[in-house]
Structure formats: structure tokens, C-alpha cells
Write a structure and sequence with these properties.
Length: about 260
């Protein structure tokens, strides 16, 4: 397949059987980790990094300097961010534009779409969403990042990435991380919504009474109710699974049309 066609295709180097069964195997392995005592181990190295990157990514898209320390050293479970800055905003725009161009030149359709979406969100948060509201979404984006980033790496399983990503190997490593992160978050939030489990309030080290916890801030400062919080994350879970199901069905239809 030539490079021009690759830009609008799935990964032509991904074997048909792997495309058909790979994500299902990853979800099965993720379930074995998420619904067993192994979850305590994997949450430190998967869920916490996704959580802190969720905070940081939302802050960067709001033109803020952010340091996701918990993504680099999960035991810290902390992300710091500052007030919006014009220079940070310009730097973020430059990096996203560079990423978009390099993805196009590398003929990676998935990354082109990703960077287009990030540029749209950067413009939305930086210019159209007020300061207080954007800070609220940064707080929300910790738990949200566990869903969204997990779904992103699982969705990327099907697509072509530039050679330097070594994607034939890392699609499996990150795919397992994504499946665990998504299912562990579902276990947590559907437990809250359906089985009456308590909200995961507080912070890792400060306990449930720590007012600096994400959900503590949503309730205490932004006046969300526990029901609204649970509904927002369970609805996000359904959206993530809908995207993954649509992608998998598209792959099955594509393979059938090529038979």
C-alpha cells in the first residue's frame, strides 16, 4: 500500500487476525488485572499516571504550565499547574502544530486526527472558556483522563504510527495499560453508581478528608453533587466503550470487504 493511501487507512502492517482478536485479548487481560488483587499493583503504574496526565493535558490546553510529577513518579500522585500564560499558550500551539505537520508527513491518520482535536480543544479552553470554568475542568480531568487516555491507546491499536514509535511492540504494552486503566475506572465508578460504594474522595496520602482531593474540590468549591459526579464519569465510560465498539466493528467490516 502506498503512502498516500496509508494516510486514510488502518495500519496496513497489522495482521488481520491481530486486528480482529487483539483488542479483545487485551480487554480480557485487563479485566483479569482490574478485578483481582493485582489491581492494587497496576493502579500505581497505570491509573495514577493516566490520572495525572489527564490533569496536565487539560492544563496545557488551557495555556498553563503544568508538571505531572505523578505521571513520572507515580508514588507522588501529584500534578502542579499555574495560571494561564500567553507565552505558554503560544508554545503549546507551536508544539501541537508541529505534531500535526509531522504526523501528516509520517502518514499517520490517527495522530493527525488526534492533533487536530487537541488544537480545537486548545482554542476552546484558551479563548472561549472562562478562567474559573477551565480550572474546574482541569480538576475533573484527573478521573476523566483515566478513561480518555486509556481509550486513546486502545483505539490506537488499529492504526499506523511512525516507525520511531516501534508500534508493533508498544501497541501491546500500551494496549494492556489502556485496557486495565479503562476497566479499573469502570469498576470504580459503576461501583459508586450501581452498588453504593463511597466516592473516592481525598488524595492518596491525605486520606478521604483531604480537601485538596479532586472530588472534594468539585463538591466543595464547584458545587457538584455526588450524583452529578458519578453520572459524568459513568456517561464518559459509555462514550469510551461506544467509540471502541464502533472502531472494532469498522475493522471487522473492512476485513470482510477485503476478503
Amino acid at each position: 500500500m502506498d503512502q498516500e493511501k496509508r494516510l486514510i487507512s488502518w495500519d496496513p502492517e497489522l495482521p488481520e487476525e491481530q486486528a480482529r482478536w487483539g483488542p479483545l485479548v487485551l480487554l480480557l487481560l485487563g479485566a483479569l488485572a482490574a478485578f483481582t488483587p493485582l489491581s492494587y499493583f497496576f493502579q500505581w503504574f497505570v491509573s495514577i499516571p493516566f490520572h495525572e496526565l489527564g490533569h496536565a493535558l487539560c492544563a496545557w490546553l488551557d495555556s498553563r504550565k503544568a508538571t505531572p510529577l505523578g505521571a513520572l513518579i507515580p508514588v507522588f500522585a501529584w500534578t502542579s499547574f499555574e495560571e494561564p500564560s500567553l507565552w505558554v499558550g503560544l508554545l503549546i500551539f507551536f508544539l501541537l502544530a508541529q505534531g500535526l505537520l509531522r504526523s501528516y508527513w509520517s502518514h499517520s491518520f490517527f495522530l493527525v486526527v488526534t492533533f487536530c482535536l487537541l488544537l480545537f480543544l486548545w482554542a476552546l479552553l484558551s479563548f472561549f472558556v472562562g478562567h474559573e470554568r477551565s480550572q474546574m475542568w482541569i480538576v475533573w480531568a484527573g478521573q476523566g483522563g483515566e478513561f480518555i487516555l486509556s481509550t486513546w491507546v486502545l483505539l490506537g491499536f488499529y492504526f499506523y504510527f511512525p516507525k520511531k514509535w516501534h508500534w508493533p511492540f508498544f501497541r501491546w504494552v500500551l494496549g494492556f495499560a489502556g485496557s486495565f486503566g479503562l476497566l479499573f475506572s469502570c469498576r470504580k465508578w459503576f461501583g459508586v453508581a450501581l452498588f453504593g460504594e463511597p466516592l473516592p474522595l481525598g488524595t492518596v496520602w491525605g486520606g478521604s478528608e483531604d480537601s485538596g482531593g479532586d472530588l472534594n474540590q468539585l463538591i466543595g468549591h464547584y458545587l457538584w453533587t455526588p450524583r452529578q459526579i458519578g453520572f459524568s464519569y459513568t456517561r464518559l465510560a459509555f462514550a469510551c466503550f461506544a467509540v471502541l465498539i464502533c472502531a472494532h466493528v469498522a475493522v471487522l467490516l473492512k476485513n470482510r470487504s477485503e476478503d
